[in-house]
Each structure stands twice: as C-alpha cells, then as structure tokens.
Here is the input.
Amino acid sequence: QQPVQSPQAVILREGEDAVINCSSSKALYSVHWYRQKHGEAPVFLMILLKGGEQKGHEKISASFNEKKQQSSLYLTASQLSYSGTYFCGTDPGRGFGNEKLTFGTGTRLTIIP
Amino acid sequence: DGGITQSPKYLFRKEGQNVTLSCEQNLNHDAMYWYRQDPGQGLRLIYYSQIVNDFQKGDIAEGYSVSREKKESFPLTVTSAQKNPTAFYLCASKGIGPDTEAFFGQGTRLTVV
Here is the structure.
C-alpha cells in the first residue's frame, strides 16, 4: 500500500515556507524524498534512516518519526526552483527480500514570484 | 557517464498488442524497479528485482511481465491483459540497502489507441 502524502497540492509565494507530510501504514526502516519537475525523472533529495541518520540535500530538512511511521519535509525560504512534485519513498528494512521501495501519492508544489 | 536509460521516450500502440519498454543501467546496481505514474496517483510499483533471474510483484503487477536476465537490463512488457495501459512509465535502480538512493530513467510515455 502506498504511503499517503499531504497536502496534495500547495501554492506558495517565493520566500514562504512549506511542510510536506508522509504517512505509512507499515513499519519503516528508511524514508526517501524525491522531487520531480514536469516531464522529467524524479531526483533524489534525501534519505532518513531509523535511528536518526540523514543523508542528502543541504538546504532541505526533514524529520522521521519511527514510532508513528511518519516523515515530514521542510522547505524554508522557498525559491522558484523548488516547484515540482515531491514524493516520499518508504523502504521496509535491511536484508535480501527487503528492497521494495514504495512511493507516495505525491505533493505538487507551485512557487510564484 | 553512469546512468539509467529508458527507451523509447514516446510509444504508440494499438489496443490488444503487447509492447516492451526497455530499461538499461550501467551503475552496477543490484536492484531495479518499474513504476507507473498517472495524474493524482503518484508512483505505483509494478515489479522489482533485487538480483539477476529473480523478481517480485509490486502493487499493480496484473497485465505486466518482466525479465532480469542481465544485471544491467530490466525490460517491462505491457500485455494485452492490462486494461488501461496508457501511462507514463518510470524505471529506477539502486544499490542494496535502505540507505542507498534510487536513480530514475527519463521515462516512457505509452499511449494505446
């Protein structure tokens, strides 16, 4: 089952902040975040691991609540280049047989000047 | 340069015909994935493979088939049994482990008429 993202869409003025949420019904080992521009391939932003380790983008931050199986992506002082659709991806854990990377429903972010 | 290549970018087929989408990667990744993207539904997992000659069904595998004869290649066949095949298809690859990022191809837009 896909993770659920909220909001589905948001429009911001340049410089405003946004929070995108991702919620899963299954236990998670890690959460991935990607951004997709229209007609292009999704691009990696960051990974959050169980235990608090993070890997990824310098100007974007995120949180991962393992107990609630939720993650949030924080976009501060948004720039026009932040426009696109954001996806969270969930990974069930380590070991062979656990490479099922499932993505969420997406959040469409539009930044206006 | 290392990367993941999908071909063709656009594909048109008549209803009732099988069609195969190509996905090749030279990143030496063990895991490969196929996703279907429809407006408002995010990225839905069709099939994934963690090792040569092995693959698992994703969440929407009905009407699709795959093979993994080589580490570099993971072709997807959309069969005539798929009731609504018109969509944007994305292929991805990643290393083993929840802390490794996925790389996506540029996608294939399939239109069945």
Q: What stands out?
A: The interface with chain A takes residues 31, 33, 35, 40-45, 48, 50-51, 56, 58-59, 90, 92, 94, 96-107 of chain B (CB under 8 Å). Chain B has no helices and eleven strands.
